[in-house]
Structure formats: structure tokens, C-alpha cells
Specification:
Elements (H helix, E strand, L loop, with lengths): L1 E6 L6 H10 L4 E3 H8 L5 H10 L12 H8 L3 H28 L4 E5 L14 E6 L2 H12 L3 H9 L4 H4 L5 E4 L4 H14 L5
Parallel strand pairs: 1-3, 1-4, 2-3, 4-5
Helix pairs in contact: 1-9, 2-5, 3-5, 6-7
Length: 199
């Protein structure tokens, strides 16, 4: 089984490519989904986060206010590292269990959708890396439109990640997502063909 790491940057269009892969019948294991599950009330990671960051980051129903937590970690690298050290091991375990499930099923390929693949130094956990790339001005525009954020907020989120330009060198294949969806799709199928993955 070939394990493909799908990555990109915030608002690069990685979710679009992820949907295309699922539509093609290739299982996608989404790190973000497991990150959300890991921080639900009652989970071990949730308890550690509240103990470290305090009750001020909670909504009235005791779920974590992602915006409040985001405001802390996007502007403070030490706090971001602390949060990652709590959440990442829990997420990795859930993803590994799922990957082994697909391996037992005899799947030909599985995709690990990991936004921070390079930042978390997880290159060794995959066989191939597929990067979804956009120019920074496109990324900024999309992020502001998507989240209704100011230019400063959007830039601080983009800059908390390794620039997409730098990630290109570590990727086995790059999908240029500055164009239309059909252009993106044809690039994706070309890569899968090259890697001998039959969608």
C-alpha cells in the first residue's frame, strides 16, 4: 500500500484536492478531523489544554473556543508548540489506527491529509508527498474571503506556517491550484498515473 501525504498551506485549496481523491475512491484520513475530535470535552488532550490555557478559552457549553485559542497560539510560538505537543500525539494515534484498518482491507493507496506535514516533520510517515500550491496573494485573498478576517489576521495565520514556496522542494509532486478546478483535477490524475495509483 502506498501512503500519500497530502499537504498545503492555509487556504491553498487542499480540501478541494482531498474531495477529488475521495471521489476517485481513494481513502483520505483527515488530520484536522481527528484534531477536532481530540479536543472534544472528555478527551485526554482537552483536559490538558484547559489545564494549560485556562478556562478563558472555553465557550459557555465548555467546548473550546477555537478563535480564542487561535488568537493565543498564532501570535506566540512557545504556546503554539505547547498546544501541538498536547494534540499531535493523540491525532497521530487515531490516524495510524485508521491507516492500519485500510491496510488490512487490502487498499492500494491511502492519503494522509496533514496540513502541517512539514512543520510537524512527518515526512517519514509517508511514501510520497503531494503539495497543493498557490501564490501568496491568492492565498491571502482566499483566506480573507473564507474567514472574513482582516489582512493582518490572515497574514499572521499564513506566516505561522512554512511558506508554500519552501515546501515545494520537499514535495514529490506539486499541484498548482492557482487556476480552475478542472486544471487542478487533471494535474491530480496525472500524478496518480505517474505513481501507478488507479483511481
Amino acid at each position: 500500500m502506498i501512503v500519500i501525504g497530502l499537504t498545503g498551506g492555509i487556504a491553498s485549496g487542499k480540501s478541494t484536492v482531498s474531495s477529488m481523491l475521495e471521489k476517485a475512491g481513494i481513502p483520505v484520513i483527515d488530520a484536522d478531523r481527528y484534531s477536532r475530535e481530540a479536543v472534544e470535552p472528555g478527551e485526554k488532550a482537552y483536559k490538558k489544554i484547559v489545564a494549560h490555557f485556562g478556562e478563558g478559552i472555553l465557550h459557555g457549553d465548555r467546548t473550546i473556543d477555537r478563535k480564542k485559542l487561535g488568537a493565543i497560539i498564532f501570535n506566540d510560538e512557545a504556546e503554539r508548540k505547547k498546544l501541538n505537543a498536547i494534540v499531535h500525539p493523540a491525532v497521530r494515534k487515531k490516524m495510524n489506527d485508521r491507516k492500519n484498518f485500510y491496510r488490512k482491507e487490502g487498499r492500494e493507496a491511502v492519503v494522509l491529509d496533514i496540513p502541517l506535514l512539514f512543520e510537524s516533520q512527518l515526512q517519514g510517515t509517508v511514501d510520497k508527498i503531494m503539495l497543493v500550491y498557490v501564490n501568496e496573494h491568492v492565498q491571502l485573498k482566499r483566506l480573507m474571503e473564507r474567514d472574513g478576517s482582516t489582512k493582518e489576521e490572515a497574514l499572521s495565520r499564513i506566516r505561522s506556517q512554512i511558506p508554500l514556496e519552501n515546501k515545494k522542494t520537499g514535495a514529490d509532486a506539486v499541484i498548482d491550484n492557482n487556476g480552475s478546478e478542472s486544471e487542478t483535477e487533471s494535474q491530480l490524475y496525472e500524478i496518480l498515473k505517474r505513481w501507478q495509483v488507479r483511481p
